[in-house]
Amino acid sequence: KKKVQNDTNTRDNQRHRGAADGKCTPYLVDVGLGEPPLGPLKYDEDSFGVTQITSEGMQSRIVHENRTWVDGKGVRRRCAILEWKKQHQKDAVWEPRLQWDLAEAPTTHRHMQETVPKPVLTLESFDYVIPILTQTNSTFMRKIIVCKLTPDTKVTMTGRELKITRRRFQSDEHIERRTLIPVEEVRQELESTFQIPLDETQGVNLDDPAWASTAHLWEHL
Question: Is the pLDDT of residue 119 over 80?
């Protein structure tokens, strides 16, 4: 049985520490948009460079950035990078997903104690982002970009384009694509698949180029 608590927070991701069998083990939890691993990743010095496979079959690893730099206070800094293994035709390659400053997310309890304590961020503490996201020219206000993950399937809708990836990370992974023409079909799909009520999608106009997502920009979702 594990107990989880917040230890440090980066700008938009939280790092958690899980206690199991009397030991204090750090984990990285990624809850971002797209295709994060559906489980925590071990996050200590011994886990850097080690391939970790989560329940859905995703292969991830955390590595050190090659370069270091000196900040304004003369302190040498370095980043960690979360990578995942992606299949490209016949070859599988490691691609970066996230990057963060190790000073803001230390890997050991000793380093945590040496780091200046930071308050645990609540959902309300991100309220400052709302005006940025909801301004008239914001992508998040004028594009339909939604993604839903299960261990076996990923469903993405960008504008009129519906993409369903089945048997993710398996040798027989299958991708189905459909273009939804009537706007009512789009709204019905948003309600049935993503549980977004119809009354929240009134006024969606996919004939307006501002609403119709440019598909190639979201191909990775």
Answer: no
The listed range with the strongest mean pLDDT (9-18, 32-41, 205-214) is 32-41
Query: Do the beta carbons of residue 83 and residue 60 sit within 8 Å?
Result: yes
Structure tokens at 219: 């191909």
- What's the rounded Cα separation, in Å, for the pair 166 and 147? 14
What is the Cα 93 distance to its own chain's centre?
Answer: 19
CB atoms within 10 A of CB 163: 18
What is d(CA 105, CA 11) in angstroms, rounded to the nearest whole number? Answer: 11
The length of the chain, given as a count of residues: 221
Contact 40, 16 (CB under 8 A): yes
Whether the CB-CB separation of 89 and 111 falls below 8 Å is answered with no
Q: Pairing between strand 23-28 and 3-9?
A: unpaired
Query: Each residue of 146-174: pLDDT tens digit?
Result: 899 888 999 999 888 899 999 888 888 89
Judge if pTM exceeds 0.85.
no
Contact between 82 and 99 (Cβ < 8 Å): yes
Which secondary structure element, helix H or strand E, spans residue 139, and what is its range? helix 139-142
| Radius of gyration, alpha carbons of the chain | 20
Cα gap 90→141, rounded to integer Å: 38
